[in-house]
Amino acid sequence: xxxxxxxxxxxxxxxxxxxxxxxxxxxxxxxxxxxxxxxxxxxxxxxxxxxxxxxxxxxxxxxxxxxxxxxxxxxxxxxxxxxxxxxxxxxxxxxxxxxxxxxxxxxxxxxxxxxxxxxxxx
Length: 122
Description:
Number of helices: 5
Number of strands: 0
Helix content: over 70%
Largest sheet: none
Structural class: mainly alpha
């Protein structure tokens, strides 16, 4: 990995891009963050995925707060998804070390492709 000001600038730009995607689309910042952490910053696969989760938590909280203040969140609709997301997060966090990095990257790529196709066709 690089050191010094250039690395700091890359880290800041990576965060800005992920935050902007997350803020505009209500999520998906990790779709930008993971590839940038892997390719641009040089983190190995699993560290990039784990770092993305750690970074996205406060970004999602900020975005959710902004939407909540503007009346854009229906808490009755969001609650079941929140509970399911918490369960999925716990299960995946516990099993994360057992998933081979190559499979993790392929699953992530499939998710990005699926989401892109759904967005274009939807």
